[in-house]
DNA sequence: TCCTACGATGGACCAAGTCCAAGTCAATAC
DNA sequence: GTATTGACTTGGACTTGGTCCATCGTAGGA
């Protein structure tokens, strides 16, 4: 945890109370929170924190590569603190639960040159969908 | 084109001028339009059509499996009329251009049982990202 | 301890999408 | 051809998720 804060400081981040709280919230939870959920948890520790600051800080963490944005559907983006281990997502189509998964193989290699249309392809994002055990039984 | 309209009628769709126009707009274009773009094109042919109707109709086409929704990022959803041929998407991270692509291999098979957490996994959606030729040179 | 540029604030604003009460009309029945 | 009716459409208000900006506050260097 203080690893994250250290890394940020080393990159010249000005360490404010607000940024610390946002970083700690993300780092502490291993689920994928929405910006509003981050705000709610941050507010517990630092009641005056503003929505704009949470958005700013999340945006900065994303561009620093410390967290990744997951746009699961048309709803709110979720923020995934587990950015250093490449992984994909498995989402329950019914209740929206998300799990990190690690498929075998290299999906980038599965896209032949003839299907790249001159693009410089740099990443691939896979979303598996299905029913989680709970929703499957119900 | 009238294939689509026939299929819809056979499923008990009440064929109104509005629905016909929306279906024709989607069927005519082989790009991936946003709801607003569909509305704009529909308005050319049928000026009184309302936004709510376009959203309703798109939603119905999606649940009938005739078009698929593509939530590329936090922006507006796009509607993909090419729902009958399975395919994935390649998106330019800079300008947002989308192309349909057909990767080799079966991504569902790449997810081992140990990574399924009891889910009944039914589909996978892959999004390749990179720079299109135009944005790469600029 | 003082300065100052970087960061935080909150309230207005925006875009995408949903909801709803009232009006309209496609398809069936006669 | 006309009547009937329930499904469809309308448009405007509303909601959600997010951005912008002028102003104020403060972290961290000198």
Automatic annotation (TrEMBL), chains A, B:
InterPro entries for the chain: FUR, Fur_C, WH-like_DNA-bd_sf, WH_DNA-bd_sf
Family as reported in the entry's similarity comment: Belongs to the Fur family.
SUPFAM superfamilies: Winged helix' DNA-binding domain
Protein name: Fur family transcriptional regulator
PANTHER family documented for this protein: HYDROGEN PEROXIDE SENSITIVE REPRESSOR, ZINC UPTAKE REGULATION PROTEIN
Keywords annotated in UniProt: DNA-binding, Repressor, Transcription, Transcription regulation, Zinc
Alphabetical list of Pfam families matching this protein: FUR (PF01475)
Source organism superkingdom: Bacteria
